[in-house]
Design a protein that fits this description.
about 25% strand; FAS1 domain; 34 strands; about 600 residues; alpha+beta
Length: about 600
């Protein structure tokens, strides 16, 4: 187009937009000199895949306005593929065959402001699905980038088009449902370093199920090698059965024990590493048994831990996912495999109390100065992986956010402030309000469940503020939501008998949770009871029912889940996080002070 013609065209569009804008909003029109994806393919001589595009009828898609990423195989790669599928030439492909190939190689980037260049790749599943509705995976191997463990990206990389990016690859990608190796086939082909897992797998009776190639019936399987077993003194199948029988004494049959063991390693859905980074718990093939997931931020990558468990003041270490293994994110015809660096198994546990400091969020704990005096951070929706919330449109930024603050844990009694007895000195500050944060959902720690339901009392520990009424609900997958009966008012002072007659106060749903000294503004309120049917991490939802004063925030310190048949008042917690029983005097609780001399028995 000549410059004069282009100028006239743009001028015409400008006039049209000016007139139209008097009546309604219009979408911005962007004119770009960049070529479209199929035109760039012509420049790169990717003629064979262009022919496949034509046969599929999808060339118009990559020649239209949009935001796409296309992984286009070289001509040599297409020739190799045609030999593998016994096709004489590209033109021998049917419309359906060509469409299947193209849809697997083409991604629609739904966020128009986003892109998918190699710098956006992370090891694991891509952030957007392809047109086939599945996800491609990437892995950095030195300077190379491998797609789906099948193809490498060639140079030039990240070829920009007006409607997305073109990536050239050296192999045709094969969709999972056209792969020949199922989960079972892959397990059977594992090297002898996995011999014990393979033996248990064959004895489990699940091999046929995990070999099934039914469309949409995906499974995820976690595997472990002999070294993972050996760390727990398990070297033979008999050793494994002995351990399983000890952990689940109600099951005596050896085959049933092994079936549960392998079933506990299998999830009835397709889950890649990228999904595990956001998961809190996943159901397994064993009824009412879930795997739990937590994250640990390291310098180079985020570690994924399975079944980390906090028992009172001790933590049972989680089992790390081996993200660097060739056996992780290993796509099969009917699912995906991941390797673990340890042993996971079902354990029958009794319910126990959880004192959950809600500031212990993965992203907050990764702060360089976490729990150091003066540490503060502000979080917007989407910043925290285990807390989600929604705010009213137009809410000021500070009222939209969740704020983390850490004060000073006093080292001496003279520095102790009874109105700021936050555990570890830190807390979350937020505006639960119909005019600000309308609801907040938090992923809980692991709660022990049972088939008939394990009942817990739920206590919220906070500092009183201006009036705000909040209702609570408990959500666990596969069950109806449980609405807790008590709506708590954050403006109420604790009653006087919370200290003098704690058992009486408990009947009214009040108690002290901090151990050092009674204060009417730092208190704990009973929200109600919940029933937990599956052991795992669930969702607790807080939802305001009223408006409060604009700009007023509330401070939440801790949430406690205590089995209903256990003592609710003790132990309390001191500002350093230590559990304290009733036998200690106030002077013996941190911060320590000189205890008065008992002169009762002095003559």
């Amino acid at each position: 187009m000549k410059k004069e013609s282009l100028f006239a065209f743009v001028a015409t569009i400008a006039v049209m937009l000016a007139v139209s804008s008097c009546e309604k909003d219009v979408t911005e029109i962007v004119i770009s000199d960049d070529k479209q994806i199929d035109e760039l393919m012509e420049e790169q001589s990717l003629t064979s895949f262009l022919t496949i595009l034509d046969i599929s009828g999808l060339r118009s898609t990559v020649h239209a306005y949009g935001n796409y990423a296309l992984f286009a195989p070289t001509n040599e790669a297409v020739d190799m593929y045609l030999q593998q599928v016994n096709k004489a030439s590209v033109t021998a492909l049917t419309h359906e065959e060509a469409a299947t190939i193209v849809k697997y190689h083409l991604l629609n980037i739904s966020d128009k402001k986003d892109s998918l260049t190699t710098k956006d790749f992370v090891d694991g599943r891509m952030s957007y699905p392809n047109f086939a509705g599945t996800y491609l995976t990437t892995k950095q191997e030195g300077e190379d980038i491998r797609i789906n463990r099948q193809a490498y990206i060639e140079s030039p990389r990240d070829i920009k088009a007006s409607n997305g990016y073109l990536h050239i690859i050296d192999q045709v990608l094969t969709p999972p449902d056209t792969l020949t190796e199922s989960l079972t086939a892959r397990v059977r082909a594992l090297p002898e370093t996995f011999s014990l897992f393979k033996e248990a797998f064959e004895r489990s009776g699940l091999a046929d199920l995990l070999a099934t190639n039914k469309k949409g019936d995906w499974k995820t399987l976690f595997i472990q090698d002999n070294e993972a077993f050996a760390t727990e003194g398990i070297n033979t199948l008999n050793d494994l059965v002995t351990v399983l029988r000890a952990n689940t004494p109600a099951i005596e049959d050896e085959d049933s024990l092994l079936r549960n063991f392998i079933g506990y390693h299998a999830v009835p859905r397709l889950v890649y590493v990228a999904d595990l980074l956001a998961a809190s718990s996943l159901e397994t093939l064993v009824k009412n048994q879930v795997l739990t997931f937590s994250r640990e931020f390291a310098a180079t990558e985020t570690r994924i831990l399975l079944n980390e468990l906090k028992l009172g003041q001790t933590t049972e270490a989680g089992i790390p996912l081996d993200r660097s293994s060739v056996y992780t994110d290993w796509t099969c015809s009917n699912g995906v495999i991941h390797k673990l660096n340890g042993n996971i198994q079902i354990k029958i546990r009794s319910a126990y109390r959880i004192y959950w400091d809600i500031a212990e969020q993965p992203e907050i704990m990764a702060l360089r100065n976490f729990r150091k005096p003066g540490c503060a951070a502000d979080y917007n929706p989407g910043d925290l992986s285990e807390i989600t919330w929604e705010y009213k449109s137009g809410t000021p930024v500070a009222q939209q956010q969740i704020h983390y603050y850490c004060g000073t844990v006093p080292q001496t009694i003279s520095a102790f402030d009874e109105k700021f007895q936050y555990i570890y000195g830190d807390y979350l500050r937020l505006n639960l309000d119909l005019g600000a944060i309308r609801w907040m959902e938090m992923v809980t720690p692991v709660l022990i469940g049972s088939e008939t339901g394990t009942t817990y009392k739920v206590w919220i520990c906070y500092r009183r503020e201006l009036q705000c009424y909040v209702k609570t609900s408990f959500k666990q997958a596969g069950y109806d939501d449980q609405i807790l009966p008590y709506i708590f008012d954050m403006s109420l002072y604790a009653p006087n008998d919370i200290y003098n007659q704690p058992e009486v106060a408990e009947l009214d749903g009040w108690k002290m949770y901090n151990a050092k000294k009674y204060n009417s503004v730092v208190i704990s309120k009973l929200l109600g009871t919940i029933k937990v049917y599956t052991t795992g991490r669930h969702i607790l939802r807080l939802e305001p029912t009223t408006n409060r004063r604009v700009g007023q925030l509330g401070n939440i310190d801790m949430i406690q889940f205590i089995p209903i048949d256990e003592e609710q008042l003790w132990p309390r917690v001191d500002v350093k996080g230590n559990w304290v029983g009733p036998e200690l005097k106030a002077c013996e609780i941190w911060p320590l002070e000189e205890c008065p001399v008992d002169t009762t028995n002095i003559e």
